[in-house]
């Protein structure tokens, strides 16, 4: 293993949950000789990649890593970051994903990511739908204040399917459930035979609400698949919220 690989392995040990570690712990995790780790860590410290607190004997990521992170963030749009995470969700979950934004009273598909499954539910970019009748649309409405989403949604909800909210009162109940549980699901609504799970968040720079949905045939929606997709979307949302904080 090269010194560069050792350095990358050391830096990879740090996380939001463990922002500071001892040299002994880093040596244990990387699994390399103590002398090798000591030599690489000195280089990382000298170049600002690591900082050392003599009082606590703890190492933590240094200012140079922060600077590099800022450069990366400045040249990567939030939408591109959302797509990158969605590609992982689709590859692991196996089904098609969508990124959506509001377009007047409706939502519009901006980007589509195909999953690894040969069975694909496909809505091309530019496709529009009513937010109250989709999982990602309701998740997007849940991000807004009650006053904001009620101004956006028509007084008489367009009839889409019997499974969609028919009145504002029913929609309020769905939105409240999403806010309480963090989960938004739909089944046989916009399309018969299609189910989906959705999440939503704000672009930290533009504050635009962005929705994400994973769609799959209702007939394939086993409890195992639903839990798998829900977990992947939960992880995706946490990572994006960390980025925007």
Q: Note the beta-strand portion.
A: 15-25%
Reported CATH architecture of the largest domain? 2-Layer Sandwich
Mean pLDDT: 89
User: Could you state the CATH homologous superfamily of the largest domain?
Assistant: GAF domain
Q: Work out the radius of gyration.
A: 22 Å
Strand order of the largest sheet: 5-4-3-8-7-6
- Estimate nothing, just give the exact number of structural domains: 2
- The global form is elongated
Q: Write down the CATH topology of the largest domain.
A: Beta-Lactamase
Q: Tell how many strands the DSSP assignment holds.
A: 8
> Could you say which structural class the secondary elements and strand pairing correspond to?
alpha+beta
Task: Note the total helix count.
Answer: 9
- Amino-to-carboxy terminus distance: 35 Å
Describe the structure using short key phrases.
single chain; 245 residues; alpha+beta; Arc Repressor Mutant, subunit A; Beta-Lactamase; 2 domains; two-stranded antiparallel sheet; 9 helices; 8 strands; 45% helix
What does this structure look like?
This protein has two domains: 3-73, Orthogonal Bundle (Arc Repressor Mutant, subunit A), CATH 1.10.10; 76-244, Beta-Lactamase (2-Layer Sandwich), CATH 3.30.450. By secondary structure, the chain is α+β, with helices and mostly antiparallel strands. A six-stranded antiparallel β-sheet has the order 5-4-3-8-7-6. Strands 1-2 form a two-stranded antiparallel ribbon. It is built from nine helices and eight strands. The radius of gyration is 22 Å and the shape is elongated. 45% of the residues lie in helices and 20% in strands.
